[in-house]
Amino acid sequence: MSDLPVPFRLALVGAGRMGRQHLAALATSRTVEITDIVEPEPATRRALPGDGRRVHASLSDLLAHRLPDGIVVAAPTDEHAGLTRTAVAAGVPVLCEKPAGRSAREVDELAAFAAAHRVPVQVGYWRRHLPVLAALRERMRTAALGSIYLVTAAQWDGEPPAAVFRATSGGIHLDMGVHEFDQIRWLTGEEVVDVHAAVAGHVEDPAAATAGDVDGAVVTLRLSGGTLGTVSLGRYFPGGDMVRAEVFGSRGYERHDLLDPVDPGRVFHDALRRQADAFADLVRTGRRSGASLLDAARAVEIAERAAAAARTARPLTANR
């Protein structure tokens, strides 16, 4: 008889770009299994592989028929909070993609709602599940690098997402920057005190410019323990998707290229599997190693402050 635990049964809500990443990542998991998919778009449902998973047109339809062990919310940003509330109200734990809401207030209210219902919710900040970053965090906490002066974080996409996505994503600081803001808070254990920001003064896609998004941004942070943080974000990196972290200390320096542009999927999928395992462990034991809704609210709050600071930059113009 196998001594492996019974797989943790997940329902995936949203079979778009991010949902497909979860499907690919968890296909080889021995501990977590996606048994159901919720996808409202008929064309997307028809394109799903016929692999035996149950497919539903809405979350309410799923919950009316069965309650999975947990739900992964990978729907568009503006649906995160509503879908999470629906699942929590039904007593089903949630692993919600970042940012979990369009405003810090919305995420804070969602955190209070989940706490009142005593239903665990984890937010998909996958960087926390990279072994190289976990080891760096431990070295920082034990002062192996000495006093930390500066933590930098960079995320540049190989190419921008579709304009229709950018129109509803909340902009570069909310769509991309929250990863870096959460990462810096998590690595340092410090809170953000001051935020300064600037954006590039041109946008390649006129539709994105009309929607208010930008192609490049820089944010500088002053943290509660005296550490500085810098974040750079961009929509165009010809070598492919890039994520990088650096730490400057009085006794050491480290740089880690967290995503290899040649094979970004390998590292990303491994982190998604570890993240799902951490979620299952949270539900089963109460031990939390992933990001909470309160963590997510603070990342969104920093994004809001960065976006506000960047509005003083010169007006955007679309490249022709």
From TrEMBL:
Listed Gene3D superfamilies: Dihydrodipicolinate Reductase, domain 2 (3.30.360.10), NAD(P)-binding Rossmann-like Domain (3.40.50.720)
A GO term for molecular function: oxidoreductase activity
The Gfo/Idh/MocA-like oxidoreductase N-terminal domain, residue ranges: 8-125
Origin: domain of life: Bacteria
Transmembrane segments: none
Keyword vocabulary terms for this entry: Oxidoreductase
UniProt-listed InterPro entries: Gfo/Idh/MocA-like_OxRdtase_N, GFO_IDH_MocA-like_dom, NAD(P)-bd_dom_sf
Residues in GFO/IDH/MocA-like oxidoreductase domain copies: 134-252
Oxidoreductase in keyword set: yes
Protein name, UniProt field: Oxidoreductase
Organism: Actinomadura syzygii
